[in-house]
Design brief:
Layout: H1 18-55, H2 61-68, H3 72-75, H4 77-100, H5 102-121, H6 126-154, H7 159-185, H8 195-208
Helix pairs in contact: 1-6, 1-7, 1-8, 4-5, 4-6, 5-6, 5-8
Amino acid sequence: MAERIIPAGDAHGSPPRTDDMAEHAAAGQGELRGRLRVALVIIVACQLMVVLDATIVNIALPRIQASLGVSSADLSWVVNAYTLAFGGLLPLGGRTGDILGRRRVFVAGVSLFTVASLLGGFATSGTWLLAARAGQGVGAAFAAPGALALLMTTFRHGAQRTRALGVYAATSASGMMIGLILRAVRSEWRPGVHPRPGLARLRVHPRRVQWLA
């Protein structure tokens, strides 16, 4: 009596459905590409925020001086308070991310930056504004290393990472110029204007960076 040979597939003898497998793989790849795009947008937005904030107040300094009564000697500290806090604490921010987790420190840095932006936007004195600018620098020092680390761990080696690094580098290089251009278009400083973009980023980040790293 001849034996019935069951083809490779399932227990009922039906061949494997390669079309379904291919569709499932394509859907998975599409979802992955979508997540990587969102990740790149968040990381680039953070880097632009950090670089932009170093120059975006330069042209508005005369208005800040007139509105808050900041002396000429203290006016440069509106810029220096941010850059010194950012540059001085940048190594600490990177090391903290290695110890406590890059995503956690990244979100904490962006949150601190946003809160400091909110306080700075409603400043009524020069001291208040300088303290807020220093707080922005601290937040940026913890967010920037986490952004770069998340980019390196999220994107694989090869063309994918090269493209992501190219976008990141272009954003860093153009951030200074963008800040000056924006302030040339609108150089008026008003309390309460600055925190709005930061609040929008704060609403986006906690939901979108959970799967990073």
